[in-house]
Specification:
Elements lengths: L16 H17 L1 H16 L25 E2 L6 H11 L4 H6 L11 H14 L4 E2 L2 H6 L1 E2 L2 E2 L8 H18 L5 H6 L1 E9 L5 E8 L2 E4 L6 H10 L1 E3 L5 E3 L4 E3 L1 E9 L4 E6 L1 E4 L4 E4 L9 E3 L5 H12 L17 E6 L28 H4 L4 E12 L4 E7 L4
Parallel strand pairs: 1-2, 7-12, 12-16, 16-17
Antiparallel strand pairs: 3-4, 5-6, 5-11, 8-11, 9-10, 13-14, 15-17, 17-18
Helix pairs in contact: 1-2, 3-7
Length: about 400
Amino acid sequence: MDSLTASKNYWAKCTGKESRHAAYHLLVQLVMASQQNLEALVEHLVTLHHTLNPDSLKEFQYAPAVDGRGSSGFVGLKNGGATCYMNSVLQHLFLIPGVAEDILAVCSDKENEDSLFYQLQMVFAHLMESQLQYYVPDKFWKCFRMDGQPVNVREQQDAFEFYTRLTEQVDDYLKSQAKEKVFAQRFGGVYSIQRICQDCPHRYEREEPFLALNLTVTKCHDLQDSLDQFVKGELLEGDNAYYCEKCNQKRTALIRTCVKTLPPVLVIQLKRFGYDWEASRALKFDDYFKFPWILDMGNYTADGLAEQEEELSSGCGSRGATPSPDPKDSESSINLSVTATSSTHSPLKARKSGITSGHTPKISARLRHKGAIYELVGVIVHSGQASAGHYYSYIKDRR
């Protein structure tokens, strides 16, 4: 037992039901086994009951507003009414190894409690260290801005839009403090926007950074089918032909977007929301959509597509099963989705440009070990309709 002197912090030593029972039974065994222990315990209890210092009793009047941290070891976030979109994203970010630690390692202005970065630190600190069942991030709600405007906690917003705004604002703050961008470092990849002339050897490329892949759901059966559509591109010909600056004339050209640089953590948004302009109403696409536990992004990178072109042009393209990747060599992956799904494999479709055949070309071991293999570690799910519903998360614990 601690001394009965006054203290400013009154925390119960045993906050859980099991620990309190264990402490009680320990005291019983101690006093049953020793007369000296019994006398010491009685002396403490007599002092406690007859003390004139009311502050000494506060430690024994500990009654938290909520229950203690659950047996799972995780701390929840209170829903402010319709802030489930925030909670699902924040819990994802917190459980990515190193993110919370890097955020908390930055010295912020504690006097400015209206700072979004400071309040994000408070959220992560409570998720990490709190002994209570959940944390109420009310100050985070107040300081977060969506397009410069405060959010109504009883109005549903899009989880992916929240992810985008939060990561941008936090990284902008870190940049202003001459610190490394935490989210861009983990989620940041680079697109390659290519213009490939068909009637001449000239190619043009423009790079563009991204923090997530945005993939369509409609008319696609699974993630690989959607990725095929993503890199398929568009053939510009006739009146819409591309002007080749090196040839000084219009050429038939393929314009496509693929991935130049893959990030350590790949975020994928499935575009399940749309808008019917004629009916003036929001839409949600509930199409069945599958995605795999292990994803090979090699086919959808600039290097992978170039290797496929080389195989086909040399006549070496051959059908054959691509060896299964070893999850132990995988980079981590997070999938920001609005419906929970699972996995399959689909061949690349034949394309008008002739860049791929009707099968999936084999990707060399060189590409397979350049961080192109991802393991699924989380899904954000939206249940309900476009205008109303609920977000929740499935997250693999890797901390």
